[in-house]
Amino acid sequence: MDSVNFQLGGGDWFSTIIFMLFWVVFLFFYPRLMVSQIMWKLERTARELEDMSEKSKKFIIREITKKQKPTKELKESINRFYEFFVIGPVSLDPYGVVPKFDHVIRAEKDRFTYFVRQIAPHLDSEEKANIEMGLAGGITVHEISKIVRHYVELVRKTKNIQIAMLLQMQLPMIERIAKAMFKGTESLSKGEPIGDGLGPLVVADMAGKATWKEIGEEEIIVTDTKANGRNLILVKAKGPGGRIGFPGKVVAKLVREKKIARIITIDAAAKLEGEKTGSLAEGVGVAMGGPGTERFFIEEIIVKKNIPVDSIVVKMSQEEAITPMRKVIKDSMPEVRKSINRSLEMTKSGDTVIIVGVGNTSGVGNSSKDAESVKAWIEKYERDLKAKRKDRKKKNKNHEDFEME
After folding, report:
1. E strand or H helix at 396, and its extent?
2. 185-229 confidence digits (pLDDT tens)
3. Residue 9: inside a domain
4. DSSP structural state of residue 290
5. What is the reported pTM?
């Protein structure tokens, strides 16, 4: 009994009443205190994301205007285009949905091209392609900031602690994606090589001084070369502007026109946490991201022709795929070439093989000379990055030493 009295406040009735009042107040106000604490964190993150969205607009405007002062009309146009959206087709009846998706995706691409042509008529075709990619990244950052702001305001109005806690638990991942897209927006606007450009970089390196042929409005270029006694048809998006292109119908057309023994696709792949960046994996099937329309066109024809497809992927995180290419990714190129040779060994001498470099050609040209320039740029970027980290570490150490003194 004494122990119970002790737990309830020490034995006297006054202490017990104070103790009970404390618990009543605590139980009543604790959820509100939790919401307030979480709201502070959510509000801060929402503002950071909105700041990223505004800064991404500045990146794009800076690349369009260069050293000129941006006009009010240009700022208003980009603000308006940041609200651009795409409505996917109805898929209740899945039959025939792929052509619908293809139509919508191409309409989206045409809209981006038309908009950039209007706001930046003075830029060349490669610079315009970079601005298109930058806009796509910036719009993604803007969408993330709007969604987070929506839930912050919803929690503020409803005081719903469950929604607040769910959003708080997702914040680290949301911030990680947003920061990567933010950095990617700047890189794409400038036309810097990004991790996702490894596939086109490998193919450009294999091309030597070959002459490329551009295929219609697909933004895809094709050339012929030879290796290991095989006839190779190299396929990639046109560079060095930021493009992904539409390789599906191009590859399907090549398969219909020529006798193809094998198809090899090279792409970046999202690694699992704990896997090493730049590590390789070999498999079968069409290694190609996106909504799947381009894969569909290839898979449809290879099934009819019974053509095997090999995939070579270089692993990297989602952040590394859309930010400047790291040296460890570039250094995987020799291993990719070895993987290609292993695939070629499964064909006969004189066979024709299609090699597709899948990915974004931002900063990646179309020849081996261009590929060497990209490699040199990556080496310099890596050195500069290490120097910045070293300076930051030194400043932090000096700051700590100063505080200790």
Report:
1. helix 368-404
2. 999 999 999 999 999 999 999 998 888 998 877 899 999 999 889
3. no
4. S
5. 0.85
